[in-house]
Each structure stands twice: as structure tokens, then as C-alpha cells.
Amino acid sequence: DGGITQSPKYLFRKEGQNVTLSCEQNLNHDAMYWYRQDPGQGLRLIYYSQIVNDFQKGDIAEGYSVSREKKESFPLTVTSAQKNPTAFYLCASSPWTGRYTEAFFGQGTRLTVV
Amino acid sequence: DAKTTQPNSMESNEEEPVHLPCNHSTISGTDYIHWYRQLPSQGPEYVIHGLTSNVNNRMASLAIAEDRKSSTLILHRATLRDAAVYYCILREANAGGTSYGKLTFGQGTILTVHP
Questions:
Q1: A101 and B100 in contact (C-beta within 8 Å)?
Q2: Most buried in the list A54, B34, B48, B91, measured by CB within 10 Å?
Q3: A9, A38, A43, A54: best mutation site toward chain B, by most B Cβ within 10 Å?
Q4: Structural contact between residues B4 and B24, judged by C-beta atoms closer than 8 angstroms
């Protein structure tokens, strides 16, 4: 089945540790995105990438890092510099060109830092 | 980036039509209007998008004002499964409409559907 997969679904980490969230897609989409969602809030853009080996900061990039070495993969690292990392993280992918612009989202990773 | 304004919440009864408004007074000529919805504890899903003309698909209809400063998502017969947060988003495109910018979400409208 084509789709976008985030893993793990739940993640617990100790304060001060870096943690990497996985996002993989087999939709052949050029663009990939990472969002953060806090309880009762909308989605805020962390990073996005239009092509391999290139990515752009979103609205809340501080304390996060990404890489885009393969078209299918866009991992997000939450570093110890992120002041309040506990949140729901969503990854998405979409075409960047052409007629169809629909974005597909993963099921999310709920990160809890204790 | 152009911004959108939506009501925080709306309510509807099952099997009645729902009209979800969105204001985007600073929209530019190359911005596409997108709607997504998010069910609890899930990622958002695409609903519909348009540029100037009204659009219909199996999920909903999108009515776009003539001046494009507002739009309305129409659910023709609400069901309990339509209870979700609905996001209205502007996505920039190039002049030819062949490549697109990032997706930036606002706060959305929480739709409650009563049996």
C-alpha cells in the first residue's frame, strides 16, 4: 500500500537526550514536512524539504534538525536544545509540482520527555 | 504568507448541511485555497482545494467568493464521522500553477455534530 509511515507511535525520553523520529513515504512525493501539534492547538511547521539534500526552516525550527538524504525519508531529530519537546509530531508529504497537490499525513508520533 | 481566519467552533445536527467559512482578505492571485480536516489523534486528511471556481468532490463542495477574499466549505449532509477540526489553508503556487509552496496551518474550526 502506498502511504506515509511514522515510527514509533509513542516515544518516551529523558530530559537532555536527543531523539530521532522516523518518517518514510513510498508515494514518490518530492516535498516532505514536519509539524508539531500541542494539545488544543493547530499544526506548526518545523521544517520542510522540496528535494533531496535540501530543506528549509519553518516557523519553529529552533531545537530541531532534519536531513533529506533519500527522497523517501525525512527524519526529525529533537535535540536537547528544544525547551519543551513534549508534543504530537506529524510528518507529511506532497507533490511539489504538477496538477495534484494533496498532502498525505502520517499517523503521528507522540513524544513525551520526562 | 497570507493568513486565514476561521471561527473557533461550529455545531451542526446530523444529516443537515454545514457551511464552514474562511476569510482570507490578503490572498494573492497565485494562492490556492485548501481545506484539510483532522480527526482526534490522527493526522489531517485532504478535503478539497480550488483557485477561483467552485469545486465539488465526493467529500464536500468549496464555494469561493468572486473577489476570492473568502470561501466556504460545504458538507451537504453532516454525519457523526464529520466531527473534526477543519483547516482552511492558502498554498502559494507559481504563475503557471505548476509548482507549489509550503503548507501552513492555522487554528482551524472545531466542528461538533449532534445526533
A1: yes
A2: B34
A3: A43
A4: yes
